[in-house]
Amino acid sequence: MKNQSRFTIVFSLGLLSALGPFSIDLYLPGFPEIARDLQTTTSSVALSLSSYFIGVSIGQLIYGPLMDRFGRKIPLYTGLLIYLAASIFIVFATSVESLIVVRFIQALGGCAGMVAARALVRDIFPVSENAKVFSLLMLVIAVSPIVAPTLGGYATAHWGWHSIFIILSILAFLNFILVFFLLPAGAPPDLELSLKPKSITSKFWKVFKTPQFYTYTFAGSFAASGLYVYIAGSPHIFMELYEVSEKQYGWIFGIIAMGLITASQLNTLLLRRFRSEQIVKVALLFQVLIGIIFFLAALFNLLELYSTIVLAFLFLSTQGFAFPNTSALALAPFEKSAGTASALMGALQLGIGAVMTALVSLWSNETPLPMTLMMLLCASIGLGILIFGSKRNITLVTE
């Protein structure tokens, strides 16, 4: 593969993957204004984040088999068009209930990009390079938490929260163009694959019961849920408790996201000397330790603006090591069914994230305690699953 072609493919896959994070991060600074405009609370608006996660979780289970049956691109085009239509519809939302419902539909479309991007990595690149490619994708994805909240803060301040979903519509259209002109088709369609419910369920079960898959998928999913809990809780913490502006919140979110970017690129260097499974164990251990400090600081009222930023920065940095390696290890055993495996992995990750973000939204009070406790809980469960799975003597497929 030529370097120019490789760069083009990785960049296109990264932008496709970034559609999901942009859909989450871009509208976070607008939570207070959305709540005022729709005459509700920020906690109720945060439920639209949970509905988005639920939609992504369910949608991936649909796209996985479709992408194995019809190829990657046709389902991907369909998903992007659904996303585009839902984004335009949200511009005219008049109630928090309609926002929650249409965000669910938007997610059903947008998750096609997430499934396709992971499956195409498995299709196009050798298995031994997958963790490195996922780290490169993380670089593009991780830029979105820097750009999106800052852009969202300025867009909300100058043009109102509706402009956020106009921007998302433009991003969806740009992705459609890049997919059409730049991305290879990936694995050929499997015309013999049955789309009957029993056959699909059987294939999902075959993937799910693979020890390497479920160990690294669940460990990575709970670790990632700590990130989703932070995303759901941070608008309330920073803009209401610490009273920062929409613009300031965007910059804070971006600074914290720098830890994720730095870690994901450091991960590519570590992979030259260490195996993915070694890096994951250390990353999740550090995530738990930082989570303990974060929770205790909140419990004893020791947190203030700057300490919250520092601890969130450190906690999210561990995700830059966890995500690329758990993703690569979970998908490594699957060649012909990479679409199904990618979909199931994403569905479990976002499904767990949806539950955790809903809990932190419903439990929201006037302290950072709910957010920090849920972050610690997610990290601890992820590490526990990894330790338990490692004791089952998994025969790793890594190349």
From TrEMBL:
Major facilitator superfamily (MFS) profile domain residues: 9-399
Record has Transmembrane as a keyword: yes
Membership in a protein family: Belongs to the major facilitator superfamily. Bcr/CmlA family.
Subcellular location, principal: membrane
Name of the protein this chain belongs to: Bcr/CflA family efflux MFS transporter
Organism for this UniProt entry: Aequorivita ciconiae
GO CC annotations, alphabetized: plasma membrane
Bilayer topology term: Multi-pass membrane protein
